[in-house]
Amino acid sequence: MSKISIRSRIVIAFTLIALFVGGAFTLGIHSIFDSTEDKLMSIAMDTKLRLIVTNSSHSNETLKELGLHLYSSEYPDPAIPKYLTSVPDGFSEIKKKPVTYFVYRQTINGHDYILVQDQSLFENEFEYNVFFALRSGFLFTVLVGGLFGWLLARQILSPIVKLSHVFSQRKQQPLGERIIAEEFSDDEIGSLAQSFEDAYTKIKDALWRERLFTSDVSHEFRSGLMIISSSCELLLQHRSKEDADYEMIDRIARASSEMQKLLQSLLMIARAERTVVNPSSTQTLAQISQEAFDRWQLDFSKKKIAFSLVKKGTLPEQKFNADLLLAVLSNLLRNALNYTESGNVRIVLNESSISVVDTGVGIDLDQQHQVLKPFVRGSALPLDGLGLGLSLIQRICENQGWRLSLHSEPGRGSTFTISF
């Protein structure tokens, strides 16, 4: 698709039109000038030749003073130039730089006459000035066409630019803003503004309903999670750490607390807001990866898949949003668990990144650039799911300024790397 702006296209179109019209006009004038010159000079030189032939008193010196020279078969001239021997009857123009000659050949009373006139002064002065004026007029026409196109483009696009500017500033105004379509005249631009206004209103209403929905869902989830958390606290108060179910209740309580924090973070991501790192919920990369390892170790053990945490080099002391990074690692580890039937899964840490490496079924090459999009799932296994896990990871990484990369070989496994 062409990236040339509409303004540039209009200017180019008018310049090309001016170029075509000016060129055709200039060539036409040039052709008419040459044709008229040939006819007039043919008549003039025929008259001169007949006067010279009928009046033999004209001497060669007199003819030379008039810029003329006569060659005749009646008095053969051995000095006649070779280029004159083959000129046709009638008028001809011969250019022998730096001199231009007008030649007229005619047979009178059985004798062949060739009249030559030096036309250098006319060609070098008058005709040059005429052609210079034509060229100047042509260039002026092209420039005027381009300037007119620019002015017309500016006039035509002015309401469109205004419409674009008004709608680009719309997001800075409150929801109850004025109707923008009223600011434009009742023409095509006004109709376009009204269409934009209608579409904007529908989108605004849809976003408002979505915001109300997410707020309601958040409230209901938080209420349920608060009930779970408070119930777990009561149960833990009446049990000692040696009880068989104490660890399970404590795990439920911690998961509920983490879900509340994660829910708040995900809501902020859904609203395209950068999630502020809360110092009270930050941990180092080593701490977060160790917690993820502890959470998923039992699941991998049940499936008899080797699960390990590998640390390479000096790990950074920088602290990250623990809720979001744990959510990312949990989604990656869940995928690794689902798509790995044998072999091993590793969490690999180094100075600037963390990777989840598996020996599972891998991802087909034609699907690798699609799996990070919402509602796209790999086709290797018929597992239930909506295909939102990797999309959620991608959005979390974009929100936090991290970079998610994928390397996968079908049948050999996948490696997901988060670079910080």
Strand content: 15-25%
Order of SSEs: HHEHEEEHHHEHEEHEEHEE
Largest sheet: 5 strands, mixed
Low-confidence stretches: 381-387
Give the integer mean of the pLDDT values: 78
Instruction: Give the % helix.
Output: 40-55%
Q: Number of helical runs?
A: 9
- Assign an overall shape: elongated
Helix and strand composition category: alpha+beta
N-to-C CA distance:
36 Å
Number of domains: 3
Radius of gyration: 46 Å
Number of strands: 11
- Across the major sheet, the strand order is 6-8-9-11-10
Concise structural overview:
Helix content is 55%, strand content 16%. The chain has 420 residues and is of the alpha+beta class.
SSE arrangement:
Blueprint: H1 6-54, H2 60-65, E1 68-72, H3 82-85, E2 90-96, E3 99-108, E4 111-118, H4 120-168, H5 188-237, H6 246-270, E5 282-284, H7 285-302, E6 306-311, E7 319-321, H8 322-338, E8 344-349, E9 353-358, H9 389-400, E10 403-409, E11 413-419
Parallel strand pairs: 6-8
Antiparallel strand pairs: 1-4, 2-3, 3-4, 5-7, 8-9, 9-11, 10-11
Describe the protein's architecture and organization.
The protein is of the alpha+beta class and 420 residues long. The chain has nine helices and eleven strands. The strands form three sheets. A five-stranded mixed beta sheet has the order 6-8-9-11-10, covered by helices on one side. A hairpin with a 2-residue loop joins β3 and β4. About 2% of the residues have low confidence.
